[in-house]
Design brief:
The protein is α/β, with parallel strands linked by helices and about 150 residues long. About 35% of the residues lie in helices and about 10% in strands. Strands 1-2 form a two-stranded parallel ribbon. A two-stranded parallel ribbon has the order 3-4. Strands 5-6 form a two-stranded antiparallel sheet.
Length: about 150
Amino acid sequence: QRIMKRLQEKHIPFSEMKSASDIRRWNNGEIPVALIHPASAGHGLNLQQGGSCLVWFGLTWSLELYSQTNARLYRQGQQSQTVIIQHIITKGTIDEHIVKALQEKDKTQTALMDTLNRGRMLPEARGVQRSDLTAVAVKAEVKGALSCGRAVEF
């Protein structure tokens, strides 16, 4: 609500992205500022034609929602050569912890996927069909990628 009030005071046109019409208007360049919640923007929306800047005014703990929301702009068909993902974080707030947690989750996930893609599994898992695996511990080359020795579910 504070964001909308401030945009109105500054006479900056905006729209909350709540309908197919809003998305069409955004992609046609009719809306310079779109307000969207990551839970509703995370999957299935194509927003890359309408803009190239995303500003996070509050963060989600979910790496999936965070990544998928960013991917609404940074994807094939993006008209701009540069996509900007900006975070507004106030010192001493929970958002400082959330952004660090998201960075760590991303590092862990990237290391895990890189390791799986290279096939560097524990010896016990070698030769086992992937469909037969219920849980396999993965050796990751990045420190901390496998926290507490937990297994990864397939």
